[in-house]
Amino acid sequence: MKYLIVYDVADNKRRRKLFKLLLGYGLNVELSVFETVLDKKSLKALTSQIRQIINSKEDVVYIFPYFKEPLRNGVYKGKNYGDIFI
Asked: What is the pLDDT of residues 56-72, one digit of tens each?
């Protein structure tokens, strides 16, 4: 299944460590945003590793599943998309 991983990590050392970890799992598409394809076992392993890196009182990591159908009613803007309304 596809996942979008978004994070906000306060400490530079933890942020770099998380970034390097996520590079092994997916594609860095924007600052602090990764697209990944993970099975249940890989997702469990990744979340376990993330817990070891972040400080849960200061940092946040969101893991959003993609759906089988493309997202509808979304607005995509920016250098990679131009102005695309779905």
From this structure: 999 999 999 886 555 55
2-85, CATH topology level: Alpha-Beta Plaits (3.30.70)
Rounded CA separation 81/71 (Å): 15
Contact 5, 55 (CB under 8 A): no
Query: Collapsing DSSP states into helix, strand and coil, what is residue 13?
Result: helix
Which residues have CB under 8 Å from 61's CB, separation 6+? 5, 6, 7, 9, 18, 50, 54
Can you say which residues are annotated as belonging to the binding site? Answer: 8
Q: Would the pTM count as exceeding 0.70?
A: yes
Annotated binding site for Mg(2+): 8
